[in-house]
Amino acid sequence: MRIIVSAGGTGGHLYPALALVDYIKSQEPDAEFLFVGTTDRLESKVVPSLGYNYRGLHVKGLVGNPLQKAKNAMIFVNSLKTSKKILKAFKPDIVIGFGGYPSASIVLAASQKHIPTMIHEQNSIIGLTNKILIKRVDEIICCYEKAYEQFPKEKTKLLGNPRASKVWENDLKDVHDMYNIPKGKKVLVIVMGSLGSRSVNQVMIDTLRRMKDKDYHVLYVTGKDYYDEMIKATGDLGDHIHIVPYIDDMPSVLSSSDVIVSRAGATTLAEMTSLGSCSIIIPSPYVVANHQEYNARELADKGAAIMVLEKDLNPSHLVGTIDGLMFNDEKRNALKKASKALGKPHACEDIYKEIKNLLNRG
To answer: What residues form the annotated binding site?
Structure first.
């Protein structure tokens, strides 16, 4: 099987694509892959470092003033020409887009050449690239009911995010062992994404001080850029408040902690629901189309998480919400059960089957 995969711009697009490719490779060692992305964003560095073939497209979004939009439209037309050359050289059996502007170019070009196409939508709100491609692709995979309702039912499957499968690949460790926390003590984890959040960190200074005498341990992830200033700002909080810049093995931490406080990125929520985590979600209000809030609402409306909007965030409210879960086993277990029910741990396997079905239909 020869597959072109395109994911552009962000880890939210890229890492689900990589998870699916890794799974297909495990099932078909002779399969050949070509990644198509940008020339200068995250994927242009990560994918080649993993040993996969990579082609970068010069492409920009249709944003800005009218003149800039016109220039970017011409860039897009040129990227279509480049995409067709890529297709002619690689001769893929299928082209799969995971979002980002390069996906629009290569998937649209494949559709014009009658090559089977599939797109994957990670969020509950459909991204601009996938909106452009809806009518042109053969198959659509999504992760949320809200997105499923917006896509044409005859070619859409609700199969989840490939990252939901990835969390089960390695042996999961215990957070108590990882951070020298006494066995039997409950653990709260607070993480605002790999880069952290300055706005949330400011609220957390007082929040952590209020939790220093609680009968549970706190693992607070500042983000690499904010670690030193948070250590300086919080001072001595005792031996049960653990402040770290980042976490290398997030699946292990998610699986063995009692409560998680996090953002609502698509990958994070896919991993948490696959593992059945009990979570308090603070969606970032700084993302395109406010999609994190819509992601979080899907879980909150089904009793699978508690959502706290950043505009309502304050130390008193946050500590009260946390304590309401840490000291209530019944409520915490109910959230875990509902979260697990939304999880798609077989997402990679199910999407791979759909790829095979699509190719067999052709």
So the answer is: 10-12, 123, 194, 247, 292
User: In the structure, what pLDDT confidence band is assigned to residue 287 with cuts at 50, 70 and 90?
Assistant: confident
Integer CA distances (angstroms), 307 to 1, 257, 290, 298, 304, in order: 42, 18, 14, 10, 10
Annotated binding site for UDP-N-acetyl-alpha-D-glucosamine: 10-12, 123, 194, 247, 292
- pLDDT digits 0-9 by tens, 168-185: 877 899 999 999 999 999
Q: Is 119 helix (H, G, I), strand (E, B) or coil?
A: strand
Distances, alpha carbon 220 to alpha carbons 35, 151, 197, 240, in Å:
35, 38, 12, 11
Q: How many Cβ atoms are within 10 Å of 250's Cβ, its own excluded?
A: 20
Segments forming the whole domain that contains residue 246: 175-342
Instruction: Using the CB atoms, write b or e for 148-172: b if 16+ within 10 Å.
Output: bebbeeeebbbbbbbbbbbbbeeeb
Residues 271 and 144 in one domain: no
Assigned token pair, 349: 């396997």
The answer to whether the pTM exceeds 0.85 is: yes
Q: What is the CATH number of the domain that holds 180?
A: 3.40.50.2000
